[in-house]
Specification:
Mean pLDDT of chain A: 94
Structural class of chain B: alpha/beta
Oligomer: heterodimer
Order of helices and strands of chain B: EHHEHHEHEEHEHEEHHEHEHH
CATH topology of the largest domain in chain B: Malonyl-Coenzyme A Acyl Carrier Protein, domain 2
Largest sheet of chain A: 10 strands, mixed
CATH superfamily of the largest domain in chain A: Glutaconate Coenzyme A-transferase
Shape of chain B: globular
Largest interface: A-B, 20 and 19 residues
CATH architecture of the largest domain in chain A: 3-Layer(aba) Sandwich
Strand order of the largest sheet of chain B: 8-7-2-1-9-10
Number of helices of chain B: 12
Distance between the termini of chain A: 78 Å
Number of domains of chain A: 2
Distance between the termini of chain B: 9 Å
């Protein structure tokens, strides 16, 4: 008869927890004991999730991790949403970690590339956020989770508040598979404003020496919005939002989308579109959406994470945002990703580079930035079944089994910074894949999923194009003065416009000269603060008046 | 925890009278001037005339002197860098401030470097600075050009859209014409530099430097040092030794080196005398960082600004 043990993970967890009994009081770990505790709680070869979120960083824990003895803790397999801080990679230089699966590495993209080249780290795979969280439940199940929260009580109940982000997803995968959950908190208190994560999911809480690092990533100063951004925004509102009755949507971050947000109370209002478009949103609390919210455009917003400076404004608008019993925002990246994938009509984002088939990529040679959430938002989920007017409007065939699709809109300025062409013959991603030995080229959004491309030249309704050649022609027609653009000829373009596959500004009743900064509901950060009636509190670097 | 990098400029930043403009009574300056006289047999103030600065030997020596004085003055005022990075010959001042080379060791090396460079290609060659092209576009144009013309080399990658090329002057002129026709290049300027630096044409120079520096005993670095030729952070004297002899014949990976320093946490860049070029690059590449140019602001103000940034 077999004497196989079915509780190996449970037994191992118990062993590790017992080994630091002398450093803890129940769930509370003393700040000064953190390095020693990590050396006992983490074993060589462990899979470790470290936050590494987009905005929130468990920096007390990452700084402790880099201090562990590599003799005791080594060969770790790290799993991280975002490689953001220097010590996220220092642990590889020290031999503490050797492999990493991640989603985004923008702030450390050169170092990741160099360390990969130098053999200092190995990459498992690069993922979208949602697929990374998915793998936490399949084959990247964490042994240890190092996460951050605002507050905890002595039992280990957690308040993560506006910056909840993906912490619940990470903790769930770890806690319910006998992993060990260690949480750094800004303070341990007697009573929490609300419980975001219950104590029975948590093993240890430790008070950090200072509050966890938080980045303001979703604030865009309107003073940097150009007339080009405004023209593209007008084309998108008229040519896409209005035309297809887009009611629910996700905005990627950028000046193109900031311009759209600031044109709703003005340009879109004049078109009589309030209540007809853009009422349900999935996005971070963009300050540039404040004028539209105040003007009654927005019914609801669900957020991936928080945004520094928006806390009070959000708490004062609970009819719009998701808030807890304590009144503060509850964000949740995993659910927002699901919502943004399946439950909205449209994604709109911008790209640095696009090929003839509308495949787009943001990679730069020698930098490995990864994907973040965009590919998840920016694709058509074939499993979707529920319909909406916008989704149905994408049907172009009379096939009785035809279904709609998600609107995936890419906005593009035909010349980046006026110099680097955006439309290219072959994406740099192909070269990058070869250099970095990646299994597939790091394409951000596939051309097959793109329904619309909007440039300052016009809108290409590529979902309507029949066949590859017509799609390429539609793209060429809006690609301006580039090698891709100059390939188009006048007869083809006219035919495309007649068929409604391409629309130039005049076809949409837009004059280029209308695209003026005066159209923006807010000209600068100070205007946004006024719109918010003083509730929005911009971070210092945006307080430029 | 904002980190600080000292940036040391290279050829292109020199100006006539740049050493005469310094206060010779300042103790740091006086010390370096004295050592210069001991090592070269000439007073520092005789080196920086407009006529002398036509020669790369004098340019490089003057830049070394100015960089070391500037760096040491900052240190004396309590400004502590986490990293040092020198552009081309600026790497030698970086190595001195970093504790790897003594000033006199650096002076001897730089004199050799400059002399060998001067003599290697006395005429017909040169360099040009290009603004407005992305690297992939430039590399493609270089490939096409080199099929039928005398080889153009990529000498500096300075920012995302600023590079320097080297090669035969007539080939460079032709290349620039082609770029103006085929691309959206914003600026192309042939530099006042007759030596084609930072490419394989100077391989022999690097071999002599290798031998010369191989004989020296070097100190272990006190600060991280960003490599010109590999764009990596170097932490040992052996690695820095290699960078110092090798990079004269390799592309300067300034864009990678400074980006790496930024990713490692640098949010304060301080460009030593004679400042201007490197700080402009840093300002445009890293809008989030504070950039201080010593020449523009003065060592005193730089040091109290730096201290106030620490308190933020």
């Amino acid at each position: 008869m077999s004497t196989k043990s079915w509780t190996t993970k449970r037994d191992e967890k118990a062993r590790r927890i017992k080994s630091i009994a002398h450093l803890t009081e129940g769930a509370v770990l003393k700040t000064e004991n953190i390095v020693e505790a990590l050396e006992h709680l983490i074993m060589p070869g462990d899979k470790v999730v470290l936050e590494g979120d987009n905005q929130k960083q468990a920096d007390f824990l990452s700084q402790a991790l880099v201090q562990v003895s590599a003799g005791k803790v080594n060969k770790l397999h790290m799993i991280m949403s975002s490689i953001s801080r220097p010590e996220h990679l220092d642990i590889f230089e020290k031999g503490i970690a050797e492999k990493i699966d991640f989603s985004f590495a923008g702030p450390q993209s050169l170092r990741v590339s160099q360390m990969l080249e130098d053999g200092i780290l190995k990459i498992g795979e690069i993922h979208t956020y949602l697929e990374l969280y998915g793998r936490l439940f399949v084959d990247l199940i964490p042994n240890v989770a190092l996460v951050a929260a605002d507050k905890a009580d002595r039992f280990g109940n957690l308040y993560t508040g506006p910056n909840t982000e993906e912490t619940p997803a990470i903790v769930e995968a770890t806690a319910f598979k006998d992993g060990i959950v260690i949480v750094q908190v800004n303070e341990i208190v007697d009573e929490l404003p609300r419980v975001d994560i219950p104590a029975s999911w948590v093993d240890f809480v430790v008070e950090s020496d200072k509050p966890y690092q938080l980045e303001a990533l979703f604030t865009r100063d309107p003073k940097h919005i150009t007339e080009l951004h405004i023209l593209i925004a007008m084309l998108t509102i008229r040519g896409v939002y209005e035309k297809h009755q887009v009611k629910s949507l996700n905005h990627g971050i950028g000046f193109n989308t900031a311009a759209i947000e600031l044109l709703l109370p003005t340009y879109a209002e004049k078109l009589g579109l309030k209540g007809k478009i853009a009422s349900n949103w999935v996005l971070n609390p963009h300050p540039t959406l404040i004028p539209a919210i105040e003007s009654g455009w927005v019914d609801t917003i669900h957020c991936f994470g928080g945004e520094v400076g928006m806390e009070q404004y959000v708490a004062a608008r609970p009819d719009v945002f998701f808030t807890g019993k304590d009144g503060s925002l509850r964000s949740n990246r995993a659910f927002a990703q699901v919502a943004g994938q399946y439950a909205v009509d449209m994604f709109v984002g911008s790209t640095l580079q696009m090929d003839r088939n509308a495949n787009s990529s943001t990679v730069v040679s020698g930098r490995l930035a990864g994907f973040g959430g965009a590919p998840n938002m920016g694709h058509d989920p074939h499993g979707r079944r529920h319909s909406s007017p916008a989704w149905l409007d994408m049907i172009t065939s009379k096939d009785p089994l035809a279904k709609g699709r998600k609107l995936v809109v890419q906005t593009v300025e035909t010349f980046q910074n006026g110099n680097t062409p955006v439309f290219v013959e072959s994406l740099d991603a192909v070269e990058v894949a070869k250099q970095a030995n990646l299994a597939i080229a790091p394409v951000m959004i596939y051309g097959d999923d793109v329904t619309h491309v909007v440039t300052e030249e016009g809108v290409a309704y590529i979902y309507k194009a029949e066949g590859e050649q017509e799609r390429r022609d539609a793209l060429s027609a809006v690609a301006g003065v580039t090698t891709v653009g100059t390939a188009s000829n006048a007869t083809t373009i006219q035919s495309l416009r007649d068929k409604g596959i391409v629309a130039y500004p005049q076809d949409l009743g837009i004059a280029r000269t209308e695209a003026k900064r005066s159209l923006l509901a807010a000209q600068n950060v100070q205007d946004i603060v006024e719109w918010s009636k003083g509730l929005y509190n911009p971070p210092a670097k945006f307080k430029n008046w | 925890m904002k980190k600080t990098t000292f940036l040391f400029p290279g050829q292109g930043s020199q100006k006539p009278g740049m050493l005469n403009a310094l206060d010779a009574s300042d103790p740091v300056t006086a010390e370096i001037f004295a050592q210069t006289y001991e090592e070269l047999g000439q007073p520092a103030t005789a080196l920086d005339s407009e006529e002398n600065l036509q020669s790369t030997v004098y340019v490089q020596i003057c830049l070394l002197i100015a960089g070391v004085i500037s760096g040491r003055q900052l240190l004396a005022k309590g400004v502590k860098p986490d990293f040092v990075a020198g552009h081309s010959v600026g790497a030698f001042a970086a190595a001195v401030i970093g504790g790897v080379l003594s000033f006199k060791q650096a002076l001897a090396l730089v004199k050799t470097r400059g002399t060998l460079m001067q003599n290697a290609y006395p005429q017909g060659y040169g360099m040009a600075a290009l603004v407005g092209l992305s690297l992939p576009v430039l590399n493609n144009e270089i490939c096409v050009h080199n099929e039928n013309q005398s080889t153009i080399y990529l000498a500096n990658i300075n920012t995302a859209d600023q590079q320097v090329i080297a090669g035969r002057l007539d080939s460079i002129q032709r290349f620039i014409e082609t770029l103006k026709q085929n691309t959206s290049i914003r600026k192309a300027k042939v530099l006042n530099m007759s030596v084609p630096s930072h490419c394989v044409l100077l391989k022999d120079v690097s071999e002599v430097l290798k031998e010369q520096i191989g004989k020296l005993i070097l100190g272990e670095p006190v600060f991280g040092y960003a490599s010109n030729h590999s764009g990596r952070l170097l932490k040992t004297s052996d690695a820095i030794r290699e960078d110092l002899w090798k990079s004269v014949a390799c592309t300067v990976q300034w864009h990678d080196a400074t980006t790496l320093l930024y990713e490692l946490g640098t949010r304060i860049f301080i460009e030593t005398n004679p400042s201007g070029i490197l700080s402009k690059m840093a300002e445009s590449a890293f809008p989030d960082a504070d950039v201080l140019a010593v020449q523009e602001v003065g060592t005193g103000p730089v040091s109290w600004l730096w201290k106030s940034f620490q308190a933020e």
